[in-house]
């Protein structure tokens, strides 16, 4: 086989063939399908990595996955995009069919065309300019939690955090104040939170039955998608109207949706209506679960580690005085310990523990020859919880992320936002949101409890992103 490109650290030994890799024994036809519970897939493939090593294989019916977990190999794979690796064709087709064929799922020229637009809409300059709106949304969020604290009611933590993240994303990317935080009506999240689990289910399904027959769950999904299409059309319509009323915005769009609509309307543009609506939905989906679930994990971990919580609280209250949240953008940069808590949370509880790539042209990675078309499942957590890279690896120790050479090298091992040309463009926004929410929480309240359904450890559930199962937060007013 021709090796068009050697993606990883060179090894003297000849590359192994996929057929020679170890892996769990499967059944004829089904492969390992029966050994996998969908919502615990990440834990199963991590357990197999402990048994079979940094490169192994498994099969779901006829689809074979090569699983890799060496951090240098993973970084090399993620950097070798878009020419040698890309997102899988199954993801691309399934996301297109569900109406969000945007930046996350696209490949090739479509991805190249969209990436700069999305990057500039989410860059640090835009986030700085957006800060007053971020404060407004955080203020509403504080009032919502004050009402819950005064009434002594338990907060559905993830559902509330998703109200926050969707309001923020819509404000930044679409210039729209959807204010789901203060809404008692049916909110867009009711529809959004059905999409990623449905996508995940379809990505793993052994048979793509929905092309031939629709079950009640598929018909319900169609209804959610229809409601979302209407919301997305509304955002796009409002942006079109702003461009018509203020033509100067075509050259200097104030947000992502205006940039995309202006590009679509340019003569001879390669940007399609589908690109615009696909990316609007992509922003909502990519920005909602990831940040909300990371925040939920962070609040859970802080509650379980009183010493870290005390230090974070001291930092926040020392910096803000009697203010309920950061008053200017620069203050976000001073929340070093809170930021360290975010990195430590993402190390132990990465909301994207799996990143599946498909080989574009014959190559080699981690000493394994990979023909074009091979699916490579990158496991992002094993190295991040390995003593080799992080002493006392299972412990929650945010201080390990405070400045110093080891913090920099740690960032190369734990890659919660991915790496290379397709690294998450929303990472600056995500960190800003996380610092705002944690600062607001610790400035206003003391955490009384974070309850799990069975009173034990928070359980992990994978539905494309990895979330804690059903956390309930109880707050007391500060010093109350
Ligand atoms: C804690 C929060 C977040 C985490 C952990 C996270 C994680 C990730 C990861 C792991 C990827 C794949 C990167 C790769 O393949 O190398 C990704 C891609 C992406 N993320 Fe995020 N993300 C977060 C928040 C956000 C936010 C707030 C937005 C936007 C509002 C966003 C938008 C995207 C988009 C559009 C992509 C696709 C990029 C591409 O394929 O070129 N993410 N994210």
3D architecture notes:
This protein has 480 residues and is an alpha+beta fold. The chain has one domain: Cytochrome P450 (Cytochrome p450). It contains 17 helices and twelve strands. It has helices at 41-52, 71-79, 89-98, 108-121, 124-129, 131-151, 157-174, 189-192, 195-204, 216-245, 256-265, 273-304, 306-320, 329-333, 336-348, 405-413, 427-444, and strands at residues 55-60, 63-68, 85-87, 155-156, 354-359, 363-365, 368-370, 375-379, 445-451, 460-463, 465-468, 472-477. The strands form four sheets. A five-stranded mixed β-sheet has the order 1-2-8-5-3, with helices on both faces. A three-stranded antiparallel β-sheet has the order 4-12-9. Helix 11 (256-265) packs antiparallel against helix 12 (273-304) and helix 12 runs parallel beside helix 17 (427-444). The longest helix is centred in the middle third of the chain and has 32 residues, at 273-304. The chain is globular. Mean pLDDT is 93; it is low at 1-6. Bound molecules: protoporphyrin IX containing FE. Protoporphyrin IX containing FE binds next to helix 4, helix 12 and helix 17. The site of protoporphyrin IX containing FE has 28 residues, from helix 4, helix 12 and helix 17.
């Amino acid at each position: 086989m021709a090796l068009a490109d050697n993606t990883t650290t060179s090894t003297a030994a000849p590359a192994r063939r996929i057929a020679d890799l170890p892996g769990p024994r499967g059944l004829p036809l089904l492969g390992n399908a029966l050994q996998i519970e969908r919502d615990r897939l990440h834990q199963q493939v991590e357990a197999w990595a402990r048994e079979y090593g940094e490169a192994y294989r498994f099969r779901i019916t006829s689809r074979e996955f090569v699983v890799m977990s060496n951090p240098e190999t993973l970084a090399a794979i993620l950097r070798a995009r878009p020419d040698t690796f890309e997102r899988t064709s199954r993801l691309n087709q399934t996301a297109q069919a569900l109406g969000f064929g945007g930046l996350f799922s696209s490949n090739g020229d479509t991805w190249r065309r969209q990436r700069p637009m999305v990057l500039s809409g989410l860059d640090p300059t835009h986030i700085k300019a957006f800060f007053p709106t971020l404060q407004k949304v955080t203020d509403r969020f504080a009032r919502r939690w004050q009402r819950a604290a005064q009434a002594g009611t338990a907060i559905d933590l993830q559902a509330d955090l998703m109200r926050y993240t969707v309001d923020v994303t819509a404000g930044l990317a679409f210039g729209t104040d959807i204010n789901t935080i203060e809404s008692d009506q049916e909110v867009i999240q009711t529809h959004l939170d059905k999409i990623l689990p449905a996508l995940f289910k379809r990505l793993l399904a052994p048979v793509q039955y929905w092309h031939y027959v629709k079950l009640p769950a598929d018909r319900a999904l169609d209804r959610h998608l229809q409601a979302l299409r209407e919301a997305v059309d509304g955002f796009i319509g409002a942006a079109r109207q702003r461009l018509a009323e203020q033509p100067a915005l075509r050259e200097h769009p104030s947000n992502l949706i205006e940039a995309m609509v202006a590009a679509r309307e340019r003569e001879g543009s390669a940007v399609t209506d589908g690109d615009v609506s696909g990316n609007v939905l992509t922003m909502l989906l990519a920005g909602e679960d990831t940040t909300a679930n990371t925040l939920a994990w962070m609040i859970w971990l802080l509650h379980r580690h009183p010493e870290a919580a005390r230090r974070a609280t001291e930092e926040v209250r020392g910096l803000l005085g009697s203010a309920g949240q950061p008053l200017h953008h620069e203050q976000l940069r001073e929340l070093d310990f809170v930021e360290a808590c975010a990195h430590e949370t993402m190390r132990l509880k990465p909301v994207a523990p799996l990143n599946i790539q498909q080989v574009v042209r014959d190559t080699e990675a981690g000493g394994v020859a990979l023909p074009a078309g091979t699916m490579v499942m990158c496991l992002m957590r094993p190295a991040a919880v390995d003593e080799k890279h992080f002493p006392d690896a299972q412990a929650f120790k945010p201080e390990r992320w405070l400045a110093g050479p080891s913090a920099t090298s740690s960032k190369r091992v734990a890659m919660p936002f991915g790496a290379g040309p397709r690294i998450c463009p929303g990472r600056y926004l995500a960190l800003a949101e996380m610092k705002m929410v944690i600062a607001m929480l610790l400035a206003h309240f003391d955490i009384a409890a974070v309850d799990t359904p069975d009173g034990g450890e928070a359980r992990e559930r994978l539905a494309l992103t990895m979330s804690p199962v059903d956390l309930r937060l109880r707050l007391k007013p500060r010093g109350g």
